[in-house]
Structures are given as C-alpha cells and as structure tokens.
Amino acid sequence: MNTVDVKVEILAALRETLSPQLHNAPVLQCFIDDFADCKITMPAPQAPTQPGLPDAVAEYLPDLTATMSVQPLAQVFKFFFPQVSWYQIFRGNSTPAAFNQGLVAAQLVGGNGLFHTETLYLGLFLMAPNVTYPLHQHAATELYYVLSGSVDIRHGRSAKTRHLGKDDFSITVPHQVHELKTNTQPCLMAYIWTDDLTPQNWWWEQLVDGSWERLCWARTPAGDWSMLRREPLSDAEIARAGDG
After folding, report:
1. Which CATH superfamily is domain 3-198 in?
2. Is the pTM of this model over 0.85?
C-alpha cells in the first residue's frame, strides 16, 4: 500500500469516526484537518530499537482485539497491528519495572512511525491493568480514543475522574495537567498529538512537605522518554496548566 492510499484510508476513518461527535466537541475537527494537511512518506529502514514484543502486548492485545470497537478508526489500526513496532514508553531505573512494562505504544504515523510525518503523531497506546500514568503535561494537543477496555482520566490535581470506555474519547489542551489510570482491565487507545510537538513531558510530583515539583522527561530518538531534570512547580506553570 503506497502512502497516498494510506493517508486516504486513515483520513476517511478519522472523519467517519470523529465527525458524529463534532456537535459535542468541535475541537475534534482540528485533528481531522491536521491529518488532512500532513505529508506522509515512507521512513528510512531502521533496526528495531527494542527487539521483541513487549510482554504487555503479548499478554493483553489478543483479548483487547477480540472486544475492539467496530468504528472505522479501530479497524484501520487493526489492519496495521502486524506491522507496527511496539515499545515501552519508559525504561531504565528511574521508574519501577512494573510501570515500565505496563505502558507500551506503537506509532503508526509520525517521526518514528510505520509512515513518516513531522507534523503530528498518530498511534496506539496500551496500558496494562492497575497502572497509573501520573499527572503530567506537554505542549501538544492530545486526543485519546478508547478502542478496547477502559481507563480513568482526570485533568487537574483536584479534578473529578472521568471513566472512558470503548469509543469514548478525551481531549487534552496544551500544557493541561492530566493523569490516566487503569483498574482491573487493560486499555487500548488510539492517540493523536498535534500542534506543538516539543519532545518534553513534565510530571507533577508532590513532596512529603506538601510542595510540588515537576520532572522533565525528554523523548529520545527511539520514541521513549528519558528523565532530564526536576524543578519547583511555579505558580505561573500551575496557571498555564489551568490548575490554579
């Protein structure tokens, strides 16, 4: 399949899946338009950065696939399951092994995708059961669309948690702090990052004295995250995150 056909097929699936929701969430149109405007090419051949299939994919993807959404976007992703490269988002000793193994992703379109573009990321995000992706923020506008399973998300330290099931979606505006958490079942989501793709992911962490810091994670050339530094969480940053 050439890149023109790939783009046409994915764009049609985005439109068919998201357009019925535009009356409730007009901002969804920006994800459709940004994908329509992106230029997709074939990437240069690269050796796998994380050889082998992550354990979470081998364990949970078969059942998640069996109960997957029938929406066009889900079916497009399902077609590419055998071809995408899955990887752990976090590695190393900075985070617990169970956390690292429980968060995996595969990029379909993007800088590290099966198909290449520099202007957005579109891919899959799998969370194992009983995993919390802690409060964090980034410059990109983000869409999560649940393909199978369920996840809880909250936007803000004191915000109410929202439960997302199959075919539910969540939009996170730039710099808005948010947290994702699974319970007894895993979750498979489609994600899109658009607008500012600055490769930084800032975690918010409360210290024992009640104060807050944020930790900067930078995206590596392989697509996963590596911790760089920490700094006090300023009032200005709290205001920018809409969490004041």
Report:
1. Jelly Rolls (2.60.120.10)
2. yes
